[in-house]
Amino acid sequence: MFGNYFTHGKAAESLAGDRARMVDTQLRSRGIRDERLLAAMAKVPREEFISSEDVADAYGDFPLPIGAGQTISQPYIVAAMVEALEVNPEDRVLEVGTGTGYEAAILAELAADVWTIERHAELVDKAREILQRLGYADVHVLHGDGSLGLGEHAPFNKILVAAAAPRVPETLVSQLADGGRLVVPVGSRSEQQVEVMRKLGDQISITKHDRCRFVPLVGAQGWEL
Fold first, then answer.
1. How does residue 91 score in pLDDT terms, banded at 50, 70 and 90?
2. Per-residue pLDDT for 9 more than 60?
3. What is the C-alpha separation between 19 and 47, in angstroms, rounded?
4. Nearest Cα to Cα of residue 95 among 173, 156, 50
5. How far apart (Å, rounded) are the C-alpha atoms in residues 195 and 198?
6. 11-50: per-residue pLDDT in tens?
7. pLDDT of residue 54
8. Which of 111, 203, 115, 180 is nearest to 153 (CA)?
9. Nearest CA-CA partner of 87 in 21, 40, 154
């Protein structure tokens, strides 16, 4: 069961305190500096996107299972990848790998328009319900192969891939607007490194950031199932 367990009283206050401490001890202290992002992380209730049995660990510095063999990333990795994306208020953003919608909610606090795609139908349904209930009705949640992006809705100013790819998916690069950024974990199934791609005209530049471990990006331009 997901969502809406602690909506009043001491439990809600305790979780709000945990959220504030997470921002200070896991994000600020480790170099996250984007104040808009920190405010979003302090606002979005991570406990609403996980199972009821894991609520006590909602703000722990580790990933948590969300069903379908998938996980919600640890808060620091979410913040680090979103900060690397450099989201502006006017941006159109594509997220690949919705999960239950936590990162999409963070992005919705920062961008003008958020599209997110997930290959597991059960997670699509969960994400839609949670995001709708929390007031993020304008986040567009679609079911499909995220490695192929959403060509019919491109171009996007920013693209974030929340799953590990063996290489940067060329289709996603083609859907990136001029001047845009693509953030994706690239590597083996067991270990990856976050890569940030910048597109300016015909020029592509790539910088490498944190090492990480994500579930694999399964699809036509990702890993085979």
1. very high
2. no
3. 10
4. 156
5. 10
6. 888 899 999 999 999 999 999 999 999 999 999 999 999 9
7. 93
8. 115
9. 40
- Give the separation between CA 90 and CA 168, rounded to whole angstroms: 25
Identify the top-confidence range among 65-69, 155-159, 209-213: 155-159
Please give the structure tokens belonging to residue 98: 């919705």
Q: Write the single-letter amino acid at 86.
A: E
Can you spell out the DSSP letters for 12-50?
HHHHHHHHHHHIIIIIGGGT---HHHHHHHHHS-GGGGS
Q: Which fold would CATH assign to domain 9-212?
A: Rossmann fold (3.40.50)
Catalytic positions, written as ranges: 73
Cα separation, 210 vs 196, in Å, equals 10
CA-closest candidate to residue 87, choices 6, 156, 190:
156
CA-nearest of 79, 92, 95, 72 to 39 is 79
**The residue to which tokens 């809406």 are assigned:** 4
Contacts (Cβ under 8 Å, ≥6 apart) of 31: none
Structure token pair of residue 65: 């299972």
> In whole angstroms, what separates CA 212 from the centre of its chain?
14
Q: Is the pTM of the predicted complex or chain greater than 0.85?
A: yes
Check: CB of residue 215 under 8 Å from CB of residue 222. no
- The pLDDT-based confidence of 4 (bands split at 50, 70, 90) is low
